[in-house]
Amino acid sequence: MHSSRTRTSSFRLAAIGLAAALGAGLLAGCSSDSEPDSAGGDGEKVELSIGVFGVFGYKQAGLYDEYEKLHPNVTIKENSTERNEDYYPALLNHLSANSGLQDIQAVEVANINELAGIQADKFVDLGKESGVKKDSYLPWKWDQAKTEDGKVIGVGTDIGPMGVCYRKDLFKKAGLPTEREEVGKLWAGDWSKYVDAGETYMKKAPKGTHFMDGAAGVYNGSVSSYAEKNYDKSGELIYKKSPAVKTSWDLAMRAAEAGMTAKLKQFDTEWDQAYANGDFASVVCPPWMLGYIKEKAGKKGANQWDVAAAPKPANWGGSFLTVPEAGPHKEEAVKLAAWLTAPEQQAKLFEKQASFPSAQAAYELPAVKNAKHEYFGGAPIGQIFADAAKDIPTAILGPKDQVIGETLANVGILQVEQQGKSPDDGWKAAVKAIDNAIDE
Amino acid sequence: MRRAARRSRRYQRDARWSPYAFISPFFLFFAAFGLFPLLYTGWASLHKVSLHNPTQMEWAGLHNYSRLFEDEFFWKALQNTLTIGIISTVPQLLMALGLAHLLNYRLRGSMFFRVAMLTPYATSVAAATLVFAMLYGRDYGMINWALGSVGIDNIDWENGTWSSQIAISTIVIWRWTGYNTLIYLAAMQAVPNDLYESAALDGATRWQQFIHVTIPSLRPTILFTVVVSTIGATQLFGEPLLFGGTQTGGASHQYQTLGLYLYEQGWFNFHLGRASAIAWTMFLILVVIGLVNWLIARRLQKSH
């Protein structure tokens, strides 16, 4: 559901069933090839299928059951592929063949721009549908699924406004403030202040610990706080000279070279182990990561972790629901997509699954407004992340954002951080790999 | 009379063509699921095809192939495949030979050992590799822990070129040694006992018997395992993918194999045409390896 989480965390896990997952994807594709069973007028029996990747949580939060109760003629069937890496290529295949599509298809934020660019005519324009209320979504989220001529191919599910999770005990030992307000103020306004705090930390760092998990975390946080990163407004690829990438890269390099990172790759087994052993004091964390931290850090970490505001508002992850034109029951599907992403339902999903709403109207609902996280010292996470969400810039997305971001992190930054190469060599290696990847 | 002749003609026709009908299922399946994909991949490799729209192909001639020649990532992957192939195949086959020789002695519970040999092979690549990836962990891996207890500093297995390739080859060795052992064992049991007896009469030691009787008798089997292992090594994919968890095969592609590079090009970068070209290049490499093996085999036969 969330970009980098599904990409990497489930990578190992998922790779276990690589073959199985691919097979399942094929099977799912086949099963939905069946003839549309009676188009969806009211009263007629309709079975709506919804294709997702990973855990979207609608089923777990009881939203399908609720919808079926409200609409007795509708039954909902969810087909989940574990990894977006398998899900997205299959979706592309089905789109180009105009068959095998589900009534609703979920799309990752990293892929939405590509689809809006090359396959826009394959999707229903949700912006024009009466059940969809534009005002309830955050404007920047709404705009991400918009094509050049103003068509909206998807409605937002969750988003990932960033905060910084930190360990109070380690901060205290290193002489940094521990109160979440003060911690937030420590680096408010500029990601470089977060790295400054790292320098302070390292001076009195508890033995064997580092300030942050890895340099890719601060790169990701910093670059996501800019509107323009890899592409400019006209769609031109500018990552090689864009100030956002340059500034963020330099910050990551500063962190790596100063040795304030634990040299970990996020969602690696080593990263999980480091949580359990308390090897690093802070990590850039969107709401969906809180559950992950709680699980990996375990009981030992309870009440040690807390969450503060990030230096600047930035987004990490989130998805969209789309309705393909070739789907069997478009009309009913639009209604369901609108309902699932309406503020009330998003709030319920947040309560049960910690997916942060992309519908701003949900922030006023008590389920979000008053949400506290016990494990994180009772932090008012609804408040913290809602504040961040409102100020997230409308990012200019491009078709190759995912490849660029991943290569910069997994090739460029890792070469410097883990293999001890110079920042210059790391950058050159990353650029070479990106050129190779996007070269036609 | 005439009727009888017709019947016999029909019978002849039946006897002549029925066998083909009986074996046709294999060939039909092979044509549908083996030959067609192979040819289609070849056709696709001559086009610019994107996973965004796989049915839309744009003629590119040999561009995908000529591009591979200048592609340093491809050469690196080829080189990695070669080194990992050698450091995993050679020790693996030598160990299998030795183990088979030991199992060939009369010993208690030989059945148990033979089944035990095969268990790694029966384990899924994924499960095995995940365990190994943890064993080779940098900070909390068991191997580094063991090395640490004898005073050797932590090795960052994944990030070194040699260390990562050795780590991957141990997974391959662990999985396939038992399998090859059983093949050798089967062949060894077919060696006539008289040969050993007469060798023993001539005063040959166990070791001399192994070198002068067992190995020569096993020559065709050894050649077979070499060919099969080479094919396996060229297609190496699951182990390196799971070892580091990414398709890049390490931060500086230090253990990216051809299989992994193909996967990266096709399923991450969506260049199906280029991925097809890599697939066909791999196929051609295997054909060449097969030819070389065939030549060696013929040479060996003649020298006997």
The number of helical elements of chain A comes to: 19
* CATH structural architecture of chain B: Orthogonal Bundle
* CATH topological fold name of chain B: MetI-like fold
What is the CATH architecture assignment of the largest domain in chain A?
3-Layer(aba) Sandwich
Oligomeric state of the chains in view? heterodimer
Mean residue pLDDT of chain B:
91
Amino- and carboxy-terminal Cα gap of chain B: 57 Å
CATH superfamily of the largest domain in chain A: Periplasmic binding protein-like II
Record field, number of beta strands of chain A: 10
- Proportion of residues in extended strands of chain B: under 5%
Strand order in space, largest sheet of chain A: 2-1-3-9-4-10
Our count of domains of chain A comes out at 2
The first-level CATH class name of the largest domain in chain A: Alpha Beta
Order of helices and strands of chain B: HEEHHHHHHHHHHH
Could you describe the 3D structure shown?
The complex is a heterodimer of chains A (440) and B (304). By secondary structure, chain A is an alpha/beta fold. Chain A folds into two domains: 7-160 and 316-390, Periplasmic binding protein-like II (D-Maltodextrin-Binding Protein, domain 2), CATH 3.40.190; 163-285 and 400-439, D-Maltodextrin-Binding Protein, domain 2 (3-Layer(aba) Sandwich). In chain A, 47% of the residues lie in helices and 13% in strands. Chain A is globular, with a radius of gyration of 22 Å. Chain A starts with a helix and ends with a helix. Residues 1-41 of chain A have low confidence and may be disordered. Chain B is built from twelve helices and two strands; from the N terminus they run H-E-E-H-H-H-H-H-H-H-H-H-H-H. In chain B, strand 1 and strand 2 (57-59) form a beta hairpin. Chain B has helices spanning 2-44, 63-69, 72-104, 110-122, 125-135, 142-149, 161-189, 193-201, 206-234, 238-244, 258-268, 272-303, and strands spanning 47-49, 57-59. In chain B, 76% of the residues lie in helices and 2% in strands. Chain B has one domain: MetI-like (MetI-like fold), CATH 1.10.3720.10. In chain B, helix 3 packs parallel to helix 7 and helix 3 (72-104) crosses helix 11 (258-268). Chain B has 304 residues and is mainly α. The chains are: A alpha/beta (440), B mainly alpha (304). Chain A binds chain B through residues 8, 11-12, 15-18, 85, 89, 92-93, 96-97, 114, 118-119, 265, 267-270, 273-274, 277, 279, 403, 407, 410-411, 414-415, 418-419, 421, 429, 432-433, 436-438, 440, and chain B through 48, 51-56, 71-73, 124, 126-127, 130, 133-134, 137-140, 156, 158-159, 238, 241-242, 245-246, 248, 251-253, 267-271.
